[in-house]
Specification:
- The protein is mainly α.
- It has six helices and two strands, in the order H-H-H-H-E-H-E-H.
- The protein has helices at residues 36-40, 42-51, 58-66, 70-94, 109-119, 139-153; strands at residues 99-101, 130-132.
- A two-stranded parallel ribbon has the order 1-2.
- Strand 1 (99-101), helix 5 and strand 2 form a beta-alpha-beta unit.
- Helix 2 (42-51) runs antiparallel to helix 4 (70-94) and helix 3 packs across helix 4 (70-94).
- The longest helix is centred in the middle third of the chain and has 25 residues, at 70-94.
């Protein structure tokens, strides 16, 4: 899961950008700690719900937040803050013009709105457009294929 186009969520951001991913966050599926995935991914959201006393998955947390459950709001705010921080950090490093977010939760317009809201607290320099990935759940595969084809043409 660490390879390919979706691997960026497994990075530890260090150096001149800030690292706010909680060191106490759970173990990422790739085996690392304190990644965005371990703070914001579906497993992390479900684990946070479990810690709050709710035995539900990330989709149920999202539905509970839509229904106004305060515990779910807190969990999704933490998740979207981590993603927004990653967007700002990568904008700093790479000079991005925009970011497309995929994944089952990331494809939800309400989650994208949460990320946009969290990103709006960053200085204007780090605020780039955030949109739902055009290719939906196939976006990482199509991105990896495009990278491979590009390498083959060199």
């Amino acid at each position: 899961h660490c390879a390919g186009a979706s691997g960026v969520s497994h990075l530890h951001i260090v150096g001149s950008v800030r690292c706010v991913y909680e060191t106490g966050s759970g173990l990422c599926g790739c085996g690392r700690h304190a990644t965005v995935e371990s703070a914001a991914g579906g497993r992390a959201i479900a684990a946070a719900a479990q810690a709050a006393g709710y035995d539900v998955d990330a989709r149920a947390v999202s539905e509970a937040a839509l229904a106004g459950a305060p515990w779910a709001e807190v969990i999704l705010a933490r998740s979207s803050r981590a993603v927004a921080t990653l967007v700002a950090d990568l904008t700093t490093i790479l000079g991005l013009d925009g970011v497309a977010i995929g994944g089952s939760l990331g494809l939800s317009p309400t989650y994208i709105d949460r990320v946009r809201l969290a990103l709006s607290s960053e200085p204007a320099l780090f605020q780039v457009p955030v949109m739902v990935a055009d290719f939906g759940t196939d976006a990482p595969l199509i991105g990896a294929l495009a990278i491979e084809q590009s390498a083959m043409l060199r």
